[in-house]
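Hi R.,

Here are the chain sequences for the assembly we discussed:
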Amino acid sequence: MELFRALAALAERPARELAPVADALLIGPLPEADAYTELFNFQLAPYASIYLGAEGMIGGEARQLIAGFWRALGQSPPPEPDHLALMLALYARLRELEDEESEPVRLEGLKRARLAFLWEHLLSWLPVYLCKLESIAPPFYKKWGEVLTEALIAAALAAGEPSQLPLHLREARALSDPRAGGEVEEFLQSLLSPARSGMILVRADLTRAARKLGLGLRLGERLFILKALFGQDPQAMLDWLAAEAQVWIARHKLKRESLGIVAAFWEERAAATLSLLEQLKQDARESTTS
Amino acid sequence: MKPNELNERVSAAREETERRGETFYPGPSRIHLASFPPKERWDDWVELDTRAWPKRVEQRYMLVPTTCFNCESACGLLAYVDKESLQVRKFEGNPEHPGSRGRNCAKGPATINQVTDPDRILYPLKRAGKRGEGKWVRVGWDEALNDIAARVRKAIEEKRHQEIMYHVGRPGEDGFTERILAAWGVDGHNSHTNICSSGSRAGYQYWMGLDRPSPDHANAKVILLISAHLEAGHYFNPHAQRVIDAKANGAKLIVFDTRLSHTATHADHWVSPLPGSEAAILLAIANYLIQHNLYNREFVRRWWNWEEYLSIEHPEIETNFENFERTLKELYGSYTFEYAAQESGVDARVLEEVARLVSTAGTRFSSHNWRSAASGNSGGWQVARCLFMLNALVGAVATEGGVFPNAWNKFVPKPLYTPPHPQMWNELTWPIEYPLAMNEMSFMLPHFLKAGRGKLDVYFTRVYNPVWTNPDGFTWVEALSDESLVGCHVALTPTWNETTYFADYILPMGHGSERHDLHSYETHDAQWIGFRQPVLRAARERMGEHVSDTREVNPGEVWEENEFWLELSWRIDEDGSLGIRRYVESKERPGERLGVDEYYAYIFENSVPGLKEKAATENLTPLEFMRRYGAFEIRKRVGAIYEEAVPPDELEDVRVDRFGRVYTATPKPPSSNIVPLPTIDADADGRRFVGVEIDERILRGFPTPSGRLEFYSRTLSDWSWPEYAIPTYIKSHVHPLNMDEGQTVLISTFRLPVQIHTRSANAKWLDEIAHTNPLWIHTSHAARLGLKTGELVRVETEIGHFVLRAWVTEGIRPGVVACSHHMGRWKLLDQGQRQMMATVSLDREGDQWGLTRERGVVPYASEDADTLRIWWTDVGVHQNLTFPVHPDPISGMHCWHQAVRVVKASPEDKYGDISVDVKKSHEVYEKWLRMTRAADLHSPDGTRRPYWLLRPLKPAREFYRLPSNETESTEPVGAD
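And here is the predicted structure of the full complex:
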């Protein structure tokens, strides 16, 4: 399906030769390269493993699972199998192979593969990612995200809901509870792992939190920033995070109709995060009063 | 707009864009392999000037394709020509090239170093003092051309054709210079092949008639490499990328290499045998397949010449396939894994595991040996033969994932003129002692000259440096210094080298981006041509200028060889009386010399199927198309030509002999592909050999005397080598039985990944990466000698010794040592290349020669600021000087491995010291000469050489006949 390939091409740095692609999608003109850098390099890195993995970082089991899909297709996985551009291009290619295939058994196999890829590796995280993108992206990428979201929703509706959750989500660990003896850092890390917390927190969000709460922003990786903010005012940070969780619950709820159990999973995760944050706030209040 | 409507819109936009021949998804992108500038923008490509950072300064380029000239692979390059200065700024890969697919090794982009090398030779030079004294004067091209042309003309007029010789290191173009020599009527082609790949070529030719394998690595299930293909082996870049493709798809890689090469580190099975034992292992694998009936029985029955074998060698038994199978089991039954383990030092269980793996490949078994063991050992040609036997057993011959004969994956387009075969035989290159030599006995030349077998009046060396590259370099120095042996030595070279010091003329020739050539190589199962061109000439022509001589655009007065040869030939025979001029005369403008534009325009318009039509789709002439894209794929997936039925219109008055060979009275149909093929003898009535009859069908078969794969070589048997008529293990000259107490094997045949022989020494990036060649020695071996890494060690050969540093490593078989042959460049005085040549002095006392390193490399001021940043001083040691000649009596290959003694250096030994006794080297030459079976004593039919065997620049057939006395044999016949 050419649409996905065109969207994939625009998930790369906006070289000026891509202008005809953007024009064809009716979302041009292309932005400057710095807009791409800010969005995809500094805020929302386009790698599935960040949003599906236990650590909220590139690589790990989530990437291996996606690489395994390439292997199952008889292909050798590329160096970054979970890069959004590659994943969309693979989906487009799978659809193209279906169009080229006339033998019924092989055709059925290809269709199964495509739908499995769609639900397991794209719809499991991409709508959530695009939801975040919509709130922070510059105009060009906002439009790009809208087209992609629509295309994904259309594909999901055409495919029908799967009988069970994608494996990434079935096996996703829950949020780490600092009261259960775990390290605070582990709790903070799990907050930054979308599949565990049900929400995506990018650097811009943490900057926003610092500004809103009047805290000092220490520049570094997200975990470093979050730790620094907690170190300054944990109670305020718990409040701020709880409000974020509520926003995410509402966002996920909107996707229930088209994404069914997948949206429900994300909503539940955000709700569980909210619940834990509320309990931690309560615990903190109690310890202060006592 | 809804997604499906947008989808249609995007599809339509893509279709429309691609219909215009443009790229819709240009790179860099992961969507396709599109990390290249889209071709429609090659006239005006914009990049930011990295040196101007952080300012955004745009730099506009014209992208012009050419072909790399830094090894044989002929990978595609794209030159980035600065539109403002009209200078090349960099080279990257050409995505339109079918062989390299836009990917290059380090040597390709380093062409820019060679072009801008401050030490390159820019003007023709003529010797001013004594030969070798290092005194030169700059001369004009006219003076040089007239002088050389007059000498050549005089030699031809005086019937001294045999005194003209052209000695080439790297052929720039398939057959160009051979045709020039043929036009002169001279059998004077000399190559480097017998110090390079002849061993392997012989092994392949005796099986399939063609001397080079073309493995389809990308589609193989199991790959067996005998050499270091992933770093420096034959067709390194095109093959390496396809080996990696296969590995990524799950193929298993087996590597035989005594060293832990980079390739071995990628292997699933690394086999480190005693050097020379490889054939024993291969036959043990073959035996496993045979004894367990794991071979492709139907393929063997149909395609091996077993009937010929049985009927000639076993007339006592009935000729049927079952009897052959029984015989086969008996023939190879003794090659057990235990025997191979005993010979190779590799555990029998490992060998069995490898054999099992080979047996799982089916017809997707690719294998390759080019140099390595085949070039290191006496009888090394049997290594390639035994390796290909595995392919022949499993039927992986010209199959997907198998090995093809090269000529089926190669296209040599017919040129404007094809002069006739020379009317003479050159005894200096094809001596009577070596009737089966695969190529010219080039490395024996100085010995032959000194022995009074002939002399040279004009000796051209071209991209060749025999003093440094060949064994026994001091004997070369002696011969080249003697003007009674070599009258005029003309060195055609872009850079200084050790041989140029002993030249009379040094004529500067262009690098890969400064010359025309046309190539085709067997990189995979396809046929393609690659065009090398002077990129600045092409760029100026794109801007509307006309360039008629490449010197107009090259730096200084650097020329290109094609124009040089055409001009020289014209001047040799300006009046046409010698019959040479007609082969270099323009057809478009009679009376004028042929130019390269006309030469290539003719080829591209008339001899390359599909090119004219393809060019027309872009409104280009075929020549314009090749100047624009640099390469063209003629055919993909050629497949098993031997299985193709011969069409009925080629089968007039057919005769079939008792072995199924089919002869026809139909003349050979014309072909625009003139790739060299063996000439198989006609039948007694002159009918042409056309194929073989198998299961009542007439098929094309193989270009061998039997038309089949030759398990049994009647040729070897008839020419008095019956003991090697079938694939056999020959114990090498470095087999433990042939070595003295205390000797060890020195492997001297391996390259360094980013360097190549002589030519890459003026590439600063490559020099920085690789610039020395220590002695690989195993930890246990070093401990016995009390050696540590960096300490000096003396390696004593049959004729002398060299001193270098030790590199103590676990990456080599204990008891074997190794030293790369890519290092140890030297210069006399201050003349030469300063980045990679140590300054040395040569000392001679009678037969004793010595080379002493005066100083290593140092930083120096030049127009290139990087030369002041040179941080290395060591450039390695020139080991080849201490090797005597070891010509294999059959293939003629120089057998490079050395039996040496390795000792800790004494206090008087200095790094880089070389000492050689040329009297001893002459004795070794004579010893090996005695191993031959000369044509005058062993020819079965009164000829010098089997006519069917490939030979560069074949003389007319009547000159294959042995003369009644040798004096007559060197009497040439003129070109008329």
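The first helix of chain B runs from residue 3 to 19. The interface with chain A takes residues 1-4, 6-7, 9-14, 17, 23-31, 38, 41, 248-249 of chain B (CB under 8 Å).

Let me know if anything looks off.

Best,
T.
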